[in-house]
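Quick one, tokens below:
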């Protein structure tokens, strides 16, 4: 192992850094004349200068030094770049490594290739300005800042040989998710998992301001990070040679510490919390770029953040400064006649598969091992006839998930991330075979904590989401159970994730990864002890906005449907699957065979509940477990009170079946839609979420104005389960009265019945205020 720091190797490393810096700046400015073989002219400059220079030199420095480390240690290294707006830097490095031309033959290491590399950046039809999916070696765009360490730690789980280096911007470090994610070190097990090496890049500035950490003294930073459990090493300076030496040594130190901690832990069974190394890199923002522009300092200030020299085409002085800046890297020394980087420049690049851009983990689909799923029918609840029994859907699902953990134990490729709610959501059966990830001290009163636990319970939805994303993107499987209302905390994260997956789908070399699966339980309708703050079905809207190639939404009405849906979701790739299912004891409607068929159809007529013999007066439709119960109770009331009233019951388990086929692949064509909802009958639709969601979805279906949707309208408090549906006007009495009002044929008979139902609602209020629970006829109601 050659770890010697010779002058020649330092020279080579510096040449590589110059080349990467040159190519980074070149991507921002040059549409042609890529290696400045001609005098620089305005027509060589891109008409729109779009990109971020400020982050780039620091990223190039880190990349170059990681290359050197890999070359000397043969370490498997993946890189997550927090300041992903430094996209030109990462593209430059991936090109210098030769990975770019492996993936894109037209980006070869030649004049044509380098021209295209520069021109395509931030160019219509080219590539985005960030570390986006087209950039090989990346699982992280860094567009929306804050998730770098989470993606890095998620990638490191169960990858015992992997080191995930992670650059964190000092601006990014101010975001909530990043600030919380320093705690990754509480969950990565040095005995079994890989390592994360955080490199906090203190270039001192964000877009227009200094950063909090950037203005802190080393002493204060050391206390902060030591308090978080790290060993800290500082590398700082503005003279390249000493900085190269210091960073070289710091990386050798960090690598040595990582190996020492792992060896120590790997001698024992369990593994404990470890003092992982962390590097603080303090260098100038926009280092090596223009120092002064129009009388203002640029290098080392926030002014270097984007394009340090604007207006280059029209301002000859700026053009001259750009020429001087680009030539300061001496491109003629770095690239040969044919445009190929000279051997000394790429002498520090590691061997083929060890190149950072070639990391298979960054194209997780190539490593994906199919998840073993036990036969979900084995976990069925026995439903002799609809409504005969009650069950807690998520508790039953817990038994299936337990066996998923068991079946994939040796592949160690399935994990759950959950904000402290696995038990609260009644998934406790999983703890029969695994524990809650915990590397710290364990006390006798604790419940199922274990350093090898595969259920990470940290009370941050951001952390759960980010860790799971990192885990999935590196080719593994997982599930995120959450309270429904608080899933909205990660609304923006899933937005970014869905964009990432959508963009990956357009690149044939990026292989599909396992879907991101949410299980939202403790949902809006049953917040018996939590009330208004915990009622929020808005995550449905969040997922609905995603591309139809990614978004899937399921609301299984009972346990057997939940089993079928979850089994399906765990077998899919490249989707964001949202599953919403309650945890409370609820009536069970379908036996397993019926459930399987119903879920495969996505929506179907429940003939056993209908009495329409083909021509209903009204369609009673429902989506969600509580709306299904209320709809069936309404139908039951009307069949008792008005036997001639013809109703058809439709249940929707796959929400996107409501759309037309042109809007979503799960959408129904007109004929299939009409086969359920008819072409003209009024439809009373009881929906789990906000009513306007259904109206939006059916817009392209036949006669959408006949749909009358009841759902959650932001009413509620700490009250009884039935009072929740009453408050939101989705109770059985509301649904029954609405059905009567919408059918002209019934007008003469309807008045009295509607009045009776209204009286029931008044009686309900009086009863719950006095007794504190629902009326017996509601509580004890059963489908017969
Ligand atoms: C969550 C989020 N908020 C705001 C922005 C806008 N933004 C883009 S870059 C940037 C500054 C980042 O500074 P830093 O992390 O220090 O990176 P540097 O460019 O200095 O390397 C900001 C605020 C963003 N991308 N993401
Ligand atoms: Mg910064």
């Amino acid at each position: 192992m050659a770890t010697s720091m010779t002058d020649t190797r330092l020279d080579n490393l510096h040449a590589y850094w110059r080349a990467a810096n040159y190519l980074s700046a070149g991507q921002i400015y040059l549409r042609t004349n890529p290696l400045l073989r001609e005098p620089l002219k305005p027509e060589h400059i891109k008409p729109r200068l779009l990109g971020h220079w400020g982050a780039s030199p620091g990223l190039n420095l880190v990349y170059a030094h990681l290359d050197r480390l890999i070359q000397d240690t043969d370490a498997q290294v993946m890189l997550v770049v927090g300041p992903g707006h430094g996209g030109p830097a990462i593209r430059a490095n991936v090109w210098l490594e030769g990975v770019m031309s492996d993936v894109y033959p037209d980006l070869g290491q030649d004049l044509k290739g380098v021209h295209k590399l520069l021109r395509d950046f931030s160019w219509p039809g080219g590539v985005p300005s960030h570390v986006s999916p087209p950039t090989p070696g990346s699982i992280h765009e860094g567009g929306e800042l804050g998730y770098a360490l989470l993606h890095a730690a998620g990638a490191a789980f169960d990858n015992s040989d992997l080191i995930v280096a992670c650059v964190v911007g000092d601006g990014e470090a101010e975001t909530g998710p990043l600030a919380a994610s320093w705690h990754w070190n509480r969950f990565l097990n040095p005995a079994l998992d890989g390592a994360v090496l955080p490199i906090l890049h203190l270039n001192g500035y964000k877009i227009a301001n200094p950063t909090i950490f950037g203005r802190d003294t080393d002493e204060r930073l050391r206390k902060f990070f030591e308090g978080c459990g790290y060993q800290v090493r500082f590398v700082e300076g503005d003279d390249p040679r000493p900085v190269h030496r210091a960073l070289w040594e710091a990386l050798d130190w960090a690598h040595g510490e990582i190996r020492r901690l792992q060896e120590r832990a790997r001698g024992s069974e369990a593994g404990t919390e470890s003092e992982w190394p962390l590097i603080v890199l303090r260098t100038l923002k926009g280092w090596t770029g223009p120092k002064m522009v129009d009388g203002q300092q640029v290098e080392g200030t926030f002014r270097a953040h984007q394009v340090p020299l604007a207006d280059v085409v029209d301002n000859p002085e700026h053009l001259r400064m750009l020429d001087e800046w680009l030539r300061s890297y001496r491109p003629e020394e770095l690239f040969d006649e044919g445009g190929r980087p000279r051997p000394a420049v790429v002498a520090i690049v590691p061997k083929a598969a060890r190149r950072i851009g070639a990391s298979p983990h960054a194209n997780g689909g190539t490593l994906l091992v199919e998840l073993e799923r036990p036969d979900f029918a084995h976990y069925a609840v026995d439903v002799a006839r609809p409504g005969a029994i009650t069950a807690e859907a998520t508790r039953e699902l817990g038994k299936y998930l337990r066996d998923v953990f068991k079946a994939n134990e040796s592949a160690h490729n399935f994990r759950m991330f959950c904000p402290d709610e696995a038990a609260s959501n009644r998934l406790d059966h999983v703890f029969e075979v695994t524990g809650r990830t915990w590397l710290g001290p364990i006390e006798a009163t604790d419940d199922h904590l274990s350093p090898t636990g595969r259920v990470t319970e940290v009370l941050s939805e951001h952390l759960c989401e980010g860790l799971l994303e990192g885990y999935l993107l590196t080719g593994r499987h997982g599930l995120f159970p959450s309270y429904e209302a608080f899933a909205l905390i990660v609304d923006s994260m899933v937005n970014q994730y869905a964009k990432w997956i959508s963009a990956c789908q357009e690149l044939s070399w990026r292989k599909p990864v396992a879907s991101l699966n949410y299980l939202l339980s403790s949902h809006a309708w049953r917040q018996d002890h939590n009330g208004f703050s915990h009622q929020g079905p808005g995550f449905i809207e969040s997922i609905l906005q995603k591309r139809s190639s990614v978004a899937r939404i399921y609301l299984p009405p009972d346990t057997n449907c939940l089993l079928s849906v979850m089994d399906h979701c765990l077998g899919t790739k490249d989707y964001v699957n949202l599953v919403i299912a309650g945890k409370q004891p609820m009536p069970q409607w379908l036996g397993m065979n019926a459930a399987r068929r119903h879920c495969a159809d996505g929506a179907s007529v429940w003939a056993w509940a209908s009495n329409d013999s083909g021509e209903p007066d009204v369609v009673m439709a429902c989506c969600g477990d509580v709306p299904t119960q209320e709809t069936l109770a309404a139908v039951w009331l009307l069949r008792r009170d008005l036997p001639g009233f013809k109703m058809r019951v439709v249940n929707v388990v796959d929400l996107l079946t409501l759309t037309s086929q042109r809007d979503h692949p799960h959408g129904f064509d007109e004929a299939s839609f009409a086969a359920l909802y008819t072409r003209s009958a009024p439809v009373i639709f009881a929906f789990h979420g906000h009513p306007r969601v259904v109206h939006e979805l059916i817009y392209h279906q036949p006669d959408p104005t006949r749909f009358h949707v009841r759902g959650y309208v932001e009413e509620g408090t700490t009250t009884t389960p039935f009072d929740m549906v009453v408050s939101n006007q989705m109770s059985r009495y509301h649904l029954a009265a609405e059905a009567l009002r919408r059918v002209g044929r019934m007008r003469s008979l309807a008045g009295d019945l509607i009045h009776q139902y209204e009286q029931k609602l008044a009686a309900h209020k009086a009863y719950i205020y006095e007794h504190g629970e629902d009326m017996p006829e509601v509580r004890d109601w059963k489908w017969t």
